[in-house]
């Protein structure tokens, strides 16, 4: 039985019986693998002005009122 504060094994052989040399070659190959590059931060440029705002193309919501259907055909 292992001690309660022992760390779990890093590698586990699921099938087969590798030799000590094969396990050492695998550990060396994994240790030589380069670390992933950190993600580059997104550049923060100036915010687009009102002319290029996509919300500018949306119209105001229609109001439910008598004759409201007439106003739906009129440009805002």
Automatic annotation (TrEMBL):
<dbReference type="InterPro" id="IPR032716">
    <property type="entry name" value="ACC_epsilon"/>
</dbReference>
<dbReference type="GO" id="GO:0003989">
    <property type="term" value="F:acetyl-CoA carboxylase activity"/>
</dbReference>
<feature type="region of interest" description="Disordered">
    <location>
        <begin position="32"/>
        <end position="76"/>
    </location>
</feature>
<dbReference type="GO" id="GO:0004658">
    <property type="term" value="F:propionyl-CoA carboxylase activity"/>
</dbReference>
<protein>
    <submittedName>
        <fullName>Acyl-CoA carboxylase subunit epsilon</fullName>
    </submittedName>
</protein>
<feature type="compositionally biased region" description="Low complexity">
    <location>
        <begin position="54"/>
        <end position="66"/>
    </location>
</feature>
<dbReference type="Pfam" id="PF13822">
    <property type="entry name" value="ACC_epsilon"/>
</dbReference>
